[in-house]
Design brief:
The chain is an alpha/beta fold. It contains eight helices and ten strands. The strands form three sheets. A five-stranded mixed beta sheet has the order 1-4-5-3-2. α1 crosses α2, α2 crosses α3 (98-108) and α5 packs across α6 (194-209).
Length: 246
């Protein structure tokens, strides 16, 4: 879930739902807790048809506009209060109460909400797919070679694609909602060592094998099993050193 505080208007392409008076009341009460002597601005809080658990708050012309993902329509009131507290605190740069933060994380990291979020992303979101065949490396060939070498050829191949741009910050990722592994086009070069792109693909294949889990309200992306299996990659040290040069 992405909590954002900003002053820009939201994208016009997303469908809005009507303002919810009950949500307004909760946000007004949390505002008063955080800013007891400040004037109360008009609140406009509504559920928003996002493609994920995004949530935004914006201050425009003296009014506070809040858009909550419609995935939160069934959330208990304490969770909505926690979100209201966090958003208002972010907007006015106030300290965030740990109990609210923990409640929010436990709820949004729960198995039920993670499944719901991925289902909505599948239904509403669109994944930009380029091609697995690059100028110097074929991702399908790299995947199948690693599949045979490390997974006995038993791992089902997801959608594989090079990124549209030569990204150096996001080098690769596995998107569970669309069952896609993306690799940055920065690796599709003649001088890229084979072990570097193999390690990156191997890392994302481990995400496919070891899905994200929730532990004590926190998402566990790299479990102990994941980390132990990652260390089995023979050229791990050299690959990590090469990645640092990008």
């Amino acid at each position: 879930m992405n909590l954002q505080a900003a002053i820009e208007p939201p994208p016009r392409t997303v469908i809005l739902k009507t303002v919810n008076p009950e949500l307004n009341r909760i946000f007004e009460e949390e505002y008063r807790e955080l800013r007891p002597r400040a004037p109360m601005p008009p609140f406009h809080v509504r559920f928003y048809r996002f493609t994920s658990l995004n949530t935004t708050i914006r201050l425009r012309e003296g009014q506070i506009k809040v858009n909550l993902s419609d995935l939160l329509e069934g959330a208990p009131e304490p969770v909505i209060r926690a979100i209201a507290h966090i958003l208002i605190a972010k907007l006015y740069r106030k300290p965030i109460d740990a109990s609210h933060n923990n409640r929010y994380r436990r709820y949004t990291s729960s198995e039920h909400m993670v499944r719901q979020s991925e289902r909505i992303r599948q239904m509403r979101g669109r994944k930009r797919i380029s091609t697995a065949q690059g100028e110097h490396y074929d991702l399908n060939e790299v995947f199948e070679a690693l599949n045979t070498r490390f997974f006995h050829g038993l791992m089902g191949r997801p959608q594989l694609t090079w990124s549209e741009h030569r990204a150096r910050r996001l080098l690769g990722h596995y998107d569970a909602a669309h069952n896609t592994i993306m690799v940055s086009k920065v690796f599709d070069r003649r001088n890229t060592p084979r072990y570097a792109i193999e390690y990156l693909m191997y890392h994302e294949m481990l995400h496919l094998k070891h899905p994200v889990k929730s532990r004590n309200g926190r998402r566990c992306v790299h479990s102990r099993e994941f980390q132990a299996e990652e260390k089995l990659f023979p050229e791990l040290t050299q690959a990590l050193a090469y990645l640092k040069t990008l």
